[in-house]
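Let's practice the habit of predicting before peeking. Look at the sequence and jot down your guess about where helices and strands might fall. Then scroll down.
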Amino acid sequence: MNLKNSKLYIGLFVIIVAAIFIVPRFFSDSDSSIVYVTAEVDKNNITSQITSSGTINPLKTIEVGSQVSGYAKTVFVDYNSKVQKGDPLLEIDPYKIETELKRAQADKNKAQSDFNLTNSVYKTNKDLYEKRLISKEELDDSQSKYLSALAALEQSNATIEINESNLNNTTIRSPIDGIVLSRNINTGENVTPNGKPLFLISQELSKMKIDTNVSEADIGKIQKDQKAFFTVDAFPNQTFEGTVYQIRNEPITNNNVVTYNVVISIENDKGTLKPGMTADVKVIVAEKKDALRVPTSALRFIPPSTALIETNDVDINIKPHVWVPAKNGLIKPLLVKPGIGDGRYTEIMDGDIDEGDEVIVEAIIKNNGGKNASYLPQPKRF
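Done guessing? Here is the structure:
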């Protein structure tokens, strides 16, 4: 084979390879088309809300313990018992404390007698010393005995007060009006001060609260007195209502995620809701009636690279915009000013767009080969 034929074969080979890679692509582009899926701009209500989950709790819960030791003589209440402030909950056997009180009273009687005697001697010695009938040492000795007897008397009085208080505390009473959530003592069991709580009492459950955590990205939208709606697993088909009562400033960090406790007050007149239930909460942060709106997907749509775009001077790199059909199969962007959104729809506060206009939400690339590619909205662009 000569050099001329070799060059010819190489040239043919290059042409064949180019035909394999270039010609199909040429025909693919020419045989494909873009179909745009549009949605109509309309006017309707938009409700912007923040979702979270939380736990239903009583407004106020108090742990009741004992200040004295002994064994439980009588337990007056049980789970779910309704109590008023001052009602007896538990009586601790008072025998030991009554005995200690009697001993303290006997000690006081002796201390009182000693005090009376030393006080009389001291007063007498003061008069005698002023008349120079006794020495300074005798006066000082009587004064010392007097002061010692006085201290013993005061100590005996304090001991009596302590024992009287302990005797009074053998009957444990409810500190608030409410309901007994838990009882951790039975008749005959030992009771110790500073031990485990004997009773857990909450305020009446007709008014309760939800403790829910809201992310730092959304906490700025939460305000006091905003409406909230929630559901619980026990009643999945029923929606309950509440109100934002408190937004706490203490940050809660868990796995580098910062949240804040938002307290929602709720009514529970029928006693349907129970402490500890998990609530799925939606806080209404904004509402608009009869707002001009577009599907949120229209604000996220980015045309495919093969789209034919009408030439204009609109800066679409960072500014919010939507794409709309133009003449002769072209499309064009329109700058808009978004308002509140509910996830599905977004309010349009300003822009060259009106009710009834069409906005693009999706592009479908159709090929004659039978395969279609859908070009869906992308993550938020601005």
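How did you do? The CA atoms of residues 44 and 290 lie 4 Å apart.
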